Amino acid sequence: MRSRTAESVGQCGAPWGWFLAWVAVGACAALGLAALLSVGVLLLAAAAVAAVLLLRKGHRITALGALAGPALPLLYLAYSNRGGPGTVCRSTATETICTDEFAPLPFLLTGVLLLVASVLVFSVLDRRRGN
């Protein structure tokens, strides 16, 4: 049985950690674009600063995680609109609230496509770089 040193574990796990950091940057940028008229400018500035720091420190191919970032808000939108499309009413003991919801399928498919594609491309490139 081989023993795994901290150095070998760090080399193996580090690219996925950088990838997840880029996912957070992509999600922040996507939310910044969606909320451009309110707090979007601050979110875009935070995403830009984080991107500059990550470009200086991390592996370049981990920047593919930024493509998976917008998948998170899209998957949340799909979940939020899971009762749609159309008017969806929810009632409690004291009130009934009706809202118009979008079809969740476009949000779901786009989010899954972005997430799966970026993870697959990154894993292939990471494996190729490791060999």
Automatic annotation (TrEMBL):
The chain crosses the membrane at residues 21-54, 61-79, 105-125. PROSITE patterns: PROKAR_LIPOPROTEIN. It comes from the Bacteria. Keywords: Membrane, Transmembrane, Transmembrane helix. This is Uncharacterized protein. It comes from Streptomyces murinus. The lineage of its organism: Bacteria, Bacillati, Actinomycetota, Actinomycetes, Kitasatosporales.
